[in-house]
Amino acid sequence: MSESTRRDVDLPPPLMTSEPGSFARYTILERKPKIVQQVIESNNYPLDIVQALEALHEEIGSRPMQGLREQTPDAAFWNRGLAKYEGKTWLEVPWYFAETVFYRRLLEAVRYFQPGPWEGHDPFGKRKREQEALAVAQLAESWGQLAGVEPGMAFEILLHSCLWGNRADLSYHAVAAQARGGLVAGEERHHLLIDHTDAARELLTSGLRRVTFVNDNAGMELLSDLALTDFLLVQGWAQEVVFHLKDRPFFVSDAMPEDVRSLVASLQAVPDAAMRELVSRLHEHLAVQRLILKDDAPSESSGQRFWTSPLMFREMPPRLRTELPSSDLVILKGDANYRRLLDDRHWPHTTRLEDVTGYFPAPFLTLRTLKAEIMVGLQPGQAETLAAEDPEWLINGKRGIIQLVAGPEAPLRPDETRDVRRET
Q1: Which class does domain 3-109 fall in?
Q2: What pTM, to 2 d.p., does this model score?
Q3: What is the dihedral of CA 348, 354, 356, 358, to 10 degrees?
Q4: Residues 6+ away with beta carbon under 8 Å from 141
């Protein structure tokens, strides 16, 4: 048996849309049709595009999954994946695969890749801009909180804002409604199931050459990512920051490079002097490439880009496996990245994250609010206690994790601090 086959055999089963009563099944039955309807309502699409969207809506509810019909470099990649589930409905396949197929099929329906008036038009753009305006206004109200705050505490405020900003997910309104704008201090720290804030601070204050973000949502969360980035660069805790963004609309609110540029432009309109200084620094970081925006390169063999694919992190292409080790720390944002880190599978809650992610090529910090039925790194009995207190603890976005995996040594306890710098 090959090593890759052995790894597959050892993996637990994936989260499936076929699981009765699961959040995966609810997502396909309820959330995805609502997203289709919101896209129709938010865009002035012609009748034929509306009909294509309505056909996708109907297929999700009652028909087998269909392949891509348009001629694009990545179509064969997606259709090969779908061929493995030929004749299966949307409620009979792995959850993450179903979600990614949905967004790719939606882009086909709205002609995102086809020449014409709708080429490159973000079907979620209107909602992104609305949240962006709200996020900028809320940050402007609270930005003065950082004046005079010592760097260690400022870092904690910004890091926790990066975490809880992940609640502002336009694909999941019930969680997004909980999102708080502006800066978040420590009043929600008791909702952290794993909290390596102090260990992350210790690593960063040692001075890192490159920090890489694998970003998640635009709007409020992206604004928090930019604020933390500015802090790291100004303090000299990082010499360079890289953002890995999506090259196309994905999961409704996932950030693309144009979302970064739009957000910085929105910040520029704020009259507050301190905010203008932040905008000026962000422009400078971008101009001299202390902040580098990347949106992934297509695979030479398939034409598909990794960040918007159904592939898990252990399946990342050689170019990323070569690039990421050049970072001293990779910050993985949000729930989808956490799911990909764990292969979107039913791991026992007491599984060590380090044991699952030994394949990952760099030290990483995962910032995630819980919005999926997947979680590792808990103490024995902790999941059962949480379930008794709150049956929806895994999916309602109330709780979060800040978890650092910095090397092969023994894992940190949920609240432990120690020297996490890599040995040289």
Answers
A1: mainly alpha
A2: 0.92
A3: -170
A4: 181, 182
